Fold each of these.
Amino acid sequence: MCQVGEDYAEPASEEPPPRQPGREQKCVKCKEGLPVVVIRAGDAFCRDCFKAFYIHKFRAVLGKNRLIFPGEKVLLAWSGGPSSSSMVWQVLEGLSRESAKRLRFVPGIVCIDEGAACGLSPEARAKTLAEMKLILQTVGFPWHVVALEEVFDLPPSVLRCFAQEPVETEGAYKAAVDSFLQQQHVLGAEGAGDSPSLAQGEEQLSWPCTQDPQNPQSPDRPPTAAQTEALSRLFDSVKTLTAKEELLQALRTHLILHVARTHGYSKVMTGDSCTRLAIKLMTSLALGRGAFLAWDTGFSDERHGDVVVVRPMREHTLKEVAFYNHLFAVPSVFTPALDTKAPEKASIHRLMEAFMLRLQDQFPSTVSTVYRTSEKLVKAPRHGCAASPPGPRCLLCMCALDIDTAGAALLSQGGPPSLRHRAAVLRLPREHEGLALRGPPATLHLGRGPAPQPELLPQGLHRAADPGVPG
Amino acid sequence: MVPLFFQVLKPRLWTCPESSISLIHRPLPAKRAPPPPPALGPRAVCGACFCAAFEAEVLHTVVAGRLLPPGAVVAVGASGGKDSTVLAHVLQVLAPRLGISLRLVAVDEGIGGYRDAALAAVRRQAARWELPLTVVAYADLFGGWTMDAVARSTAGSGRSRACCTFCGVLRRRALEEGARLVGATHIVTGHNADDMAETVLMNFLRGDAARLARGGGLGSPGEGGALPRCRPLQLASQKEVVLYAHFRRLDYFSEECVYAPEAFRGHARHLLKLLEAARPSAVLDLVHSAERLALAPAARPPAPGACALLDGLNRGRPRLAIGKGRRGLDEAGPPRDGEPERAPAPEAVPAF
């Protein structure tokens, strides 16, 4: 594949075709064990080394970014699928380790029941819910199961972007960790059995092991038939599968954030894997979301202000997740989604997924290349700072609008092309009426959207008297 | 989806909404399919109005973006294909209004069995439009390196020949030289919206951060002394270009390059066609995305120029300049930074 950056310096050092793990091959890490899985293009790992590699990656991603402070409440978004199940399992294991390397945040789990949007019958939904509750009880974190119908009860405040706290500096993170460690040490010495309080001092948190996992935090009332009906109507009114998926994602995000806010969680972890994020990046490109790629696919997503969405699984490929879940018996629940069994050309998402996976077969470095490029994206034009720009934000995705009315690029005039009515293309601002071309003169109007600002036109074409709103 | 351009029913009187010209529509014979509808939105117009609308759109693009100021001498990159033919024709129509003068510059890459026929088409066009034509050849500019010679030199190592990488960079340099020869102040090329969409898809799939950072706008102002370049057809979809050429009965060369089947762009093109079928606005949405990509400054190494490529070719190690950085050019040792995907060295997991 003509991939940029492939090392062509020495033709002789071309890598040999990937060897199948034969009987003689050993694990590339420990050189002793028998390999059970091949990662990337030919690295065979034995079971223990694979487990260590997988866990290390998870911890390294969290540790490298240093966004999760000790003692912080973190909400894990669990869909039942393999990636999020793996993430929950990693957190569970991480919390139970020996104290030096133990994960130090306070987790909760949220699960959104999207059956109504996918057209499932109430019996199927109840069955899935029962399976999920079984797993949730095994895990033992405080959990919240929320039906998507509750999105109708969301207050309008979810559409407002809350002011962000100033970005913590490196020093603040280290200080927080040190003080937490000291405090634990002191508590350990005093033999306190009660829930520890933080040096930050804001909240009294209860450690999960003391909480009764039988008692969910949210009242467990099933959605009413009227709400389910309303949700089905909403989704039926959307014509294309692409738009339905986007709507579902927007609603799901708002609901999860609302749950996080009401229960005091400051971070949300989602289980998007490397493969899924690469597909999501390409899909967002095709949908016109090039300006927001860094938020959609980066490690942290702070556009909602007070709650930060974090993606700790972003370096694990789907293959690694699947093998880990299989080898180490991570429980997961299959829930049909909007595009289950949909034909390949049904939506942009399905098309892109099929294309990327096919290309990945042919060129095994496709997903990692796209991922590496996504790491180079920045949250332009302004970084997440305390005084967020006062520009208007999209209601659904909360990103600053990427339409600029006085921009140099032509497409910016009149808004994103997908919303621009091409019929408006046939309307000419008054400035250009005199330049009407061959063909019928007065009746033909051409141009696009709102009239370009007068200062953008060369002097000779400017009609000073009339700013030229297309008639 | 866009409405059908022709109603394939019994003959009826139909009035073009723009020109009020009444036309009698006859149903087309069952065997011949109607031409693809233009992506002009929910209005159906007759051929003449469509062409006028197309020309007006190009005019608007040029004027609102201030791409070609009056008095510019514009070198049109003419390959003989549909895009550059349409571009040259439209610019010729608009030239009096814009106050520009045109010169045709054709590039001979030395691809046997392809470029010769294309150049014949360009010569016919130049004669018909009475525009001065200059042909620049790789063989003259780059010390005897034709594309066929490059392909031979890069073949045989088991990897792809990367012909398009070489050809693209060298062609831009050749266009620049040709434009200077004719005393031009601006260069225009016929890239349409589909081309730009394919480019952004392809660059993401290849991980080419350098080109991603550069591309996207309507053209470049010309870094480092190069002539400013622009693409007036950038907002026109490929369907519109084809239809315009059809209605104006333009003569162009429509075979694909000999090296095209092995190009990576083919994957991007296939994907784009699928996306367009699922959602017609995908093409322009991709162009919109491309304009607004934000890449970290450190991730934007300059893409290798023609000199670096030629240097590699002349040294007998053609892939030097398209590898990671230009280490090989300095004859440095084995690569210092390995694959980022290798198993990380065991390090103390930071406390968090």
Amino acid sequence: MSERRCSEDDDRSSLISRLGSDSPRPRMKYGGMFCSVEGAFENKTLNFESFSPQTQRRRAARPQPQITNHPDPHSMSLDCGRKPEYPERTHADTGRTCRLQKVKVLAGDRLIIKGGKIVNDDQSFYADVYVEDGTIKQIGENLIIPSCVKTVDAYGQLVIPGGVDANTNLHAPQRGMNPTDDFYQGTRAALSGGTTTIMDHVLVEPGASLLTAFDQWREAAEEKSCCDFSLHLDITRWHEGLCEELEILIKDQGVNSFLFFMAYKDKYQSSDSQLYEAFGVLRDLGAIAQIHAENGDIIDEEQKKLLFLGITGPEGHILSHPEEVETEAVYRAVTIAKQTNCPLYVTKVMSKSAAEVIAKARKKGIVVYGEPITASLATDGSHYWSKDWPTAAAFVMSPPLNRDPSTPQYLTSLLACGDLQVTSSAHASFSTAQKAVGKDDFTLIPEGTNGIEERMSVVWDRAVSTGKMDENEFVAVTSTNAAKLFNIYPRKGRIAVGSDADIVIWNPKETRTVSAKTHNLMVEVNILEGLEFRGVASVVISGGRVVLEDGKLNVTKGSGRFISRKAFPDTVYKRIRARSKMAEARGVPRGNYDGPVHDVISVPKLVPPTPTTRGPTCPKTQASLRNLHQSGFTLAGNQVDDHIPRRSAQKIVAPPGGRSNITSLS
Amino acid sequence: MSDCRREWNREDELPVYLAGPIATGPNQRKSYGMFSSVEGAFDSKTIDFDNYAVGRKGSRTPRSGSRERVLDSGDPAGKTSSEGREGSLTDSPGEAEDVRPGVVVRYPSGMESSNGESERLLIKGGRVVNDDQSIYADVYIEDGLIKQVGENLVVPAGVKVIEANGRMVIPGGIDVNTCLMKSHLGTQPADDFLQGTKAALAGGTTMIIDHVTPEPGQSLLEAFERWQEAADKKACCDYSLHVDVPQWDETVKEELELLVQDKGINSFQVYMAYKDLYQLSDSQLYEAFSFLKQLGAVALVHAENGDVIAQEQTKILRMGITGPEGHALSRPEELEAEAVFRAITLGNRVNCPVYITKVMSKSAADTIAQARRRGCVVFGEPITASLVTDGSHYWNKNWAKAAAYVTSPPLSTDPTTPDHLNTLLASGDLQVVGSAHCAYSTSQKAIGREDFTLIPEGTNGVEERMAFVWDKAAAMGKMDENQFVAVTSTNAAKIFNLYPRKGRIAVGSDADVVIWDPDSSKIISAKLQQSASEYNIFEGVECRGGPALVLSQGRVVYEEGQLQAQQGAGRFIPRKHFPDYAYQRIKIRDQAKSKQGVTRGMYDGPVHDVFATPKYVTPSPSAKTSPTSHQPPPIRNLHQSNFSLSGAQADDFVPRRSGHRIVAPPGGRSNITNLG
């Protein structure tokens, strides 16, 4: 552990030093050493309710897991040194086959996860976890728990918060075709890969109502989803009239993130002006602006050119979406976000240069976050040239996978050092038959790749088992960071008392080989076909229920709840708030300029055609009034005295009304 | 001697006038063994430049036919055909030209007119500084051309001799960015072509390239002709013109083609700022760049994000800030850097050389430097103002002073900017120094006294340009004298295809020569300047270095503070397209980068039905707006499995993968659909 952490950046080292470098050692059963760690943990988790307002509201109906609830036998929280009130645990057996005492309790299972190493984004420690009613009730050693609880054995494995996939498209149609994996299939696959919360994109067609689309998505997801979900809204046509709906969505519906497109010209694309306006509104409402960053204008032109050249296959997709087009748009989006002081979240970082722009912008202090996806972390764009059309078409997505084979490694490195923050899947799968709509024209191929199931394994294999990041970072990029950014922390993204019981028992030793034959998706081509990944979710608990165990998925359709997210996430908006106070521009108090003013010739053609945009609030220049202060010379045409320097001619030495010091230039 | 022989072999390629002096020159030189090695290197560089510089040969040919002096033929009839210039010459005859010690004898040549315009000059004892090397040599000038460079030249008797006394003899400066006729709301700049070029000459600049700025809707060609007419009448030094493209449509294309092919224009400026006025969208820029590349022109870009600026201006005016500080506030540095980045991206996509005018901030300059490191063909031009001063003056309490600094992109508020830009200039990351000279009087600036967006934009700088580059970079030890020549003259000449006619002291080049005095020092003041504007933004700044003597077209126009410019003496210098310096790499990349598709068999597997409505078949814009809903496709595809995606199915728990797999499609199985 200590060796791995050497590569961490400095600000983390202080955090880590508190842990000591001895976490992998066999745990100390009773002793001072563990107590101190335990105490630190307690402080972090017990009172988080007080600082995160949104959890209180949502939990009102549930028993509060606070210290004051001691008399409640089911929601016991750990208190250091307190003696067990319950005589003895009845299920002390510790074999790997211990999931016997399956007691059907009222709503959720009662579970105890024993023997695992709990890994949060800040620290790892050995402790048992007791889950009841879909929440984590106790963490610690020798927990006092009721009898008849199911025991999940996690010896030698990691107990991590369930993954949060911040970008899926399970319901958004493209060209009228629904994705092959809908909310049911998609969330099922997510759970099998260790992801217990998804955030799906609501694609609002231009001109449609945001609220209607939101309701439609939420209904579909509540009906089918097997895991908790939340929703982003994709705004495809910005206009002032949307402000009202935005406010309702943010304040009442629990949506705090909105995606804008800089690509898809004439379809979804927003202009810089629109982005500027929209970002300003989102900042005032406390939401996060997400951006699909590609220069749609260039892409459009390139597509025309390539089709003209007769390139119609999937390779045309990548040729028309070159890397720099992505980079340029990221740069522009960052600039506009900086200008409007709005937090920006760049979805689908696919190339090295785009990632670099984000990293540099962060170094300049701009509040921007970058999200590489499963595909960009695991594979590259060479497949677009595959001779097999269905294979090549399966990789089509925007921005496309990068041709540079070192891209995945580079992105994982940036992920490890914190320059990129969140991994997601951007899962949008279309069957080969659907992709084949574009068999004669690559611009018609529906865009999207799979990745919802493989995401956690890919990150573990590419980053953790190669030694780039440690297990805590792993938890951060797969779960905690997303939860923090989108304001569902610490309900999600942390193993802590009071958090939702979305828990994954991660087996870092096991490997799995991805194949379309064995995956849990509907789509027939898996872009990661044949790749082997170390690190597998062996047990997945979603909402307190075991959904994956022994390789068996046991999901319940419609069990997923909608997770509403409050505005003004602290992680994002603390800095934004402070800056908006600082960044007030002030004018210079001056006396009125009372010197001569040149006449503006009132020739209509020389006046800008649309003067409203250039000088919006002020009346047009005094074209009709003659200025008596002006000297008599006119600039039109040749003058007899052209060879004489005219400097002094324009200087009004003694203007009528007395000389003013404002016009004195010497 | 082998050198000399080589030269003689080329005699047939060289103009007649070159053959004689060169043949005799090296004979005399033999006694100086040590120096001759340098001399030889120099000779081989300069003698055969006609051979490799296509721009020169090409640019000479049209000139001889039209309005330029015919040099190659020496035909007196050709000379009389230069109509505009001839007339103005007679207007101002017989300027006194001699205060320097030395012999001045008019040579009674038959082919020379008697107006004393052309003279024979020998610059003795100077150090000739080009962008690649410095040598001690004399320069002999005749007929407005450099005829000999070397030691112990054999010159006709009775030439005027200028003693340089060891000072630098450099090619005259080229100011690639002036706006001497750019109207703002109908008012013309205070400095027109006469004032502006006089100021240029006084500062050691012997050529300007002015921006033709037609208003949207106006004909580019007409505007170009207006500019040319005005400049022919007034300009005192050679000039060329950039043409600004205020809008993009089909008619513009034809005019551009005409301008490139017939008028000798190879650079066009496009705007990314000035929303709803000049601004082009990314699509238009893409098209414009593609077209300019086909024509072989250089795309000049005014890089600022106009959309965001328009928004910021609205916001700032709404906040009640109407003074010049609003100009700086509404155009922050980031917007410049962003637009530069976008322009480079577009240029790289199209594979068109991009030239960023007016680099005003560190971040924009860094963006250019990084792009060059990636191999993009991009050039950056800082201007006098950005190399010397910063944007703190926008907050000046004196409105008139603050307004004088208004230019776009604005001067950066970061006081370290000038230093940084000078460093990049010295290291070659930025290439050319312009002035963006566009001087408006205070009363003109006062049009915007209640609204900063109406203040005419532009600062002075044409006169101070060379001196400040010397002061800020060369005198500080950042760059050497050769780099100084490169950034003030040679690079510009190369990029815009004037080289080696301009931008070099070499045999056959135009006699635009400056004797530079690095030790002189002056304090800039509006009282002492040639420009007609009443405020100088460098007021009170002390500046080392300056021209001691300026030769334009072989005539002494500035000497010891005395300006003897001649109105209308300036010639229009046409520029051929496809400048080598910008286009060599572009051409090779075009060949190397050709795109090829993958040859595949036809996909004959199942195809999902799309709606019969045309909206999803074509990517036309109208189609993309319609909302999609979840109707089932009207036509059923027989290849498709019978499951529907809408709603829950009874068999949801069964993996459906195999449902899509066509094991035996009608027509036989094809390996193309085999996904195994």
